[in-house]
Design a protein that fits this description.
The complex is a heterodimer of chains A (116) and B (116).
Chain A: E1 3-7, E2 10-13, E3 19-26, E4 32-38, E5 44-52, E6 55-58, E7 65-70, E8 73-78, E9 87-94, E10 106-107, E11 111-115
Parallel strand pairs in A: 2-11
Antiparallel strand pairs in A: 1-3, 3-8, 4-5, 4-9, 5-6, 7-8, 9-10, 9-11
Chain B: E1 3-5, E2 10-14, E3 19-21, E4 24-26, E5 31-38, E6 44-50, E7 56-58, E8 64-68, E9 73-78, E10 87-95, E11 105-106, E12 110-115
Parallel strand pairs in B: 2-12
Antiparallel strand pairs in B: 1-4, 3-9, 5-6, 5-10, 7-8, 8-9, 10-11, 10-12
Classes of the chains: A mainly beta (116), B mainly beta (116).
Chain lengths: 116, 116
């Protein structure tokens, strides 16, 4: 069966510090991968998605970037955090275009980021 | 452009009472429809999905949803609510064809509070 991991689970960082959040998927190959953010009391905002290694699509201009160095690894980064980057970050996967489970997304447990 | 509206931001229901959460969508083609649940501090869990066929779909935890094409709605129901159903619920729509990225559009969520 497939599983998705995110770490760290919680993170407190000062303004201006760098950020690296990691997401890995097990039990599937060539997945589509997604990063979402939930601000407090808000819905989900899609930040980035990737359909393959090194292929990143950005949904909104912002202070963050994403990379996919391996098939089942998705990283969210920032060089200098802003207060507004605080939130709950969720990684998700769906089956790749040639695979099953294509249309539905499966979510990781999330990372709570607080920028002070 | 596609959109999902969940008109009720908060709903309070007594334990044992019935629950209905509303979802209306705007989509240019035949959509796939989903309901997810999120417990506090957790990721999203898929409750049920509608792809085609019978418009009344059954999901996990005793939930069901009905697709009404004429009303562009996909409302979620549960006949008898348990205290453990207190959570936030998200409706989502996605493409019914294999398009690059398979992005989902989420509603703003409905927070359900269960009274003893």
């Amino acid at each position: 069966s497939q599983t998705i991991h995110q770490w760290p689970a919680t993170l407190v960082q000062p303004v201006g510090s760098p950020l690296s959040l990691e997401c890995t998927v097990e039990g599937t190959s060539n997945p589509n991968l997604y990063w979402y953010r939930q601000a407090a009391g808000r819905g989900l905002q899609l930040l980035f998605y990737s359909v393959g290694i090194g292929q990143i699509s950005s949904e909104v201009p912002q202070n963050l970037s994403a990379s996919r160095p391996q098939d089942r690894q998705f990283i969210l980064s920032s060089k200098k955090l802003l207060l507004s980057d605080s939130g709950f970050y969720l990684c998700a996967w769906s089956g790749g275009k040639e695979g099953s489970s294509y249309n539905e997304q499966f979510f990781g447990p999330g990372t709570r980021l607080t920028v002070l | 452009a596609q959109s999902v509206t969940q008109p009720d931001i908060h709903i309070t229901v007594s334990e044992g009472a019935s629950l209905e959460l509303r979802c209306n969508y705007s989509y240019g083609a035949t959509p796939y429809l989903f309901w997810y649940v999120q417990s506090p501090g957790q990721g999203l869990q898929l409750l049920l999905k509608y792809f085609s066929g019978d418009t009344l779909v059954q999901g996990i935890k005793g939930f069901e949803a009905e697709f009404k094409r004429s009303q562009s709605s996909f409302n979620l129901r549960k006949p008898s609510v348990h205290w453990s159903d207190a959570a936030e619920y998200f409706c989502a729509v996605g493409p019914s064809i294999k398009a690059a990225g398979n992005k989902l559009t989420f509603g703003g969520g409905t927070r359900v509070l269960v009274k003893p």
